[in-house]
Fold this sequence. Notes:
This protein is mainly β and 247 residues long. It is built from four helices and 13 strands. The longest helix has 7 residues. The chain is globular and about 45 Å long.
Amino acid sequence: MCGRFTLRTPPAAWCQLFLIDPDAVDPDDEPAASSPEPNATASSDSWKPRYNIAPTQIIDAVVQDEAGGPRRHARYRWGLLPPWAKDLSMAARMINARSETVDEKPSFKKAFAQRRCLIPADGYIEWKKQTDGKQPFLAHRHDDAVFAFAGLYERNRQATGDLIESCTILTTRPNAVTGRIHDRMPVVLMPEDYARWLDPNFRDTDVLKELLVAPEESFLELTAVSRRVNNARNNDAACLEPVDAAI
Length: 247
């Protein structure tokens, strides 16, 4: 699964990667009918790094509304709320979608067919049981560069009467590196697959599912970090301070 991640990289860098205009990343752009959550990121002049992004918080995404059209920045509540859901609490159980069954589950099937997004990140947190409790590990690139999770987004008007925009992160089986700490990992898409993933007119689910695999073993490395990250209210560099802990 993926229950925490980071985005410490300024928008100017990741907007370039995802081919969107950094000037269009509005620091006051909140999802419809949503209010700022703890750790909610702002971009441009008021941007702040995020060291401990947790479910139900507002996260950044990249979407494409029309085939051949421009990509744009969006912000969604993390925890997908299907269009038919009448209870907002349901979203807390929808922070992840299993890639193996995403085209079958009623909660995700329609979004997988036509509402796909990229979710910028530069690391994610997973925990491993140790004799003295659960030890968090940061999975990240060796240079902490930004990459993209495969995401889905939805719109709901049933839960509160207002429009709620939300998203989920797809997961898959891990590679040999990430599998040392957990039997699942978020799907990390490669840049050459961004265009197909974002194209709302591309609906060959068999082809899309072929993209939902773990990256090569060399793509991510693991660093044991402070248990300060265990508390979602903490959002500072100390959360990711390396510690001495064996995998």
